[in-house]
Structure formats: C-alpha cells, structure tokens
Write the structure tokens for this entry.
Amino acid sequence: MADVIYQHRPVSRRMWLLPIVLWIAATVAMLLTSQVELDTFQVTVSVIGPGALFGIWLLTLWSINRYGAVTLTRESLRVGRHTIAVAEIEPQWVRMLAGRADPALAQRIAPHHVSAERQARRDRGQLLGGAYGTVLGDDLVTLELHGSGQRRVSVPTRDRRGLLAGLVTALDQPE
C-alpha cells in the first residue's frame, strides 16, 4: 500500500461518542422515570424511542465520514467513493492555489503562472466524494485535471492548507 501523504476524516471519534452516551442516558432516564412496572415492552420502547432520534444522528455522522473522507497518496487522491490519479491533476493550478492559501507554502514552491482566463472561470466542476452537497463549514478546493478541456473537480475539506500542502508534496515527488 502506498504511503499516505495527507488524510482527513471529517468526524472525530469524540463526535461518535456523544450521541451514543446521550442515547444510553435517555434510555436509562426513561426506565427510571417509568410509572409502570418494567416489562419487556417498556424496556423495548425505552431503547427504540430515543434510538430513532440518535440513530438518525449516527447515520448522519457515518454519511459525513463516508463521503467527506480525504486520503492522498503519491499515486491517488481519494475523496469519499471517488478516486483520481495524482498524475491527472494540473500542478500549476495546485501551486497557484497553495501560494494563495499559505504564505509559508508560497515561499517553498517556485513561481508559476496561470492565465487570468483560467482563473476567472466560475465553474467548480463535479463535487468529489459522492455527496449531493457540502457540509456546513466545509471549504471547496477546486482542482483542474489534465486533458478534456481542463475539466474541474471540487474537493470538500476543512483543512484547505493541509490538503494543498499535501498535493504540492505529492506532485513534487518523482515517480
């Protein structure tokens, strides 16, 4: 397996813990405040009732993690269920974005020129990952791909600088 240059999972382990703890607390609270004698039906309702609400929350976290996880190796960029070869990504475009996003990174990379016409294009291209939209708080990094009329794709991320630094590193490494 190739070495991972950059990896980001949008949902931390702590975020998974909160709905589970609240689900258990709600179940215990329902059982302790029950006015009737506990039986199988009462326990089932106490588990399934809050479970519906917290199950939706957990499903949302799973979906955000599934479609928003970014993994970058020297060979490929994987976002959710989409994979793009790093060789397809336009290096000048990435260097231009990286230079704008991080002044320290701009000093590390060589000066480059991307035409004003290419920069002025407003289209973001296909959203990678498989989701229909971005999560609140996500930023979109639009990448240009070689060939086929400078096709563009967008990568959702909360760590723009880290992703661009990883892409610069991946593009600068020799084959």
Summary: The radius of gyration is 22 Å.
